[in-house]
């Protein structure tokens, strides 16, 4: 993964709790149940989370709720956005999650979690905290949806399903500047060519 100052994640792939015999079985939706943007800010990173309105089955009319986020990276102090959490002891990867993933820190969202259509933004600040450090290819973020219904609400799942995130290809701001300059250059050359005719 190339080093950038910001990354955007979609959460579409989940561990299928309806197939109890295979705890590693996953399914991928054709839409994202949540998105996460992580970007560098002075002294650390800013993380924005949004729980999208989806057709994923819910247990009650409240809809599904995004109640947890697990990350690997250099952790610092978590602040803002009605969240709590942070690094494990000495940031050791001791949080065991679905699919055999290990994490060295987690975020809990206030109350029952983010409702569908809800969003929050918080920061993690400290030495060595960067978007790239959290987004390196070996660091796969995971979220948990609660109040899940239908075939995914089993005795073993407790109405919770975990989704893993994947990076979407979003150009850096500098890329947009270069593209703009290229278009201006093409327009200037085209205009000169018309005048020469």
Topology, please?
Layout: E1 6-15, E2 26-28, E3 34-41, E4 44-51, E5 65-71, E6 77-79, E7 83-87, E8 95-96, E9 102-103, E10 105-109, E11 114-115, E12 119-125, H1 131-135, E13 142-146, E14 161-168, H2 173-196
Antiparallel strand pairs: 1-2, 1-3, 1-14, 3-4, 4-12, 5-10, 5-11, 5-13, 6-12, 7-10, 8-9, 13-14
Task: Walk me through what this model shows.
The protein has 197 residues and is mainly β. Helices cover 15% and strands 38% of the residues. Strands 1, 2, 3, 4, 5, 6, 7, 10, 11, 12, 13 and 14 form a twelve-stranded antiparallel β-sheet that branches. Strand 3 (34-41) and strand 4 form a beta hairpin. The longest helix has 24 residues, at 173-196. The protein is globular. The N and C termini lie far apart (48 Å). The model has no long low-confidence stretch (mean pLDDT 88).
Task: Describe what is shown at a glance.
With 197 residues, the chain is mostly beta strands. It has helices spanning 131-135, 173-196; strands at 6-15, 26-28, 34-41, 44-51, 65-71, 77-79, 83-87, 95-96, 102-103, 105-109, 114-115, 119-125, 142-146, 161-168. It is built from two helices and 14 strands, in the order ββββββββββββαββα.
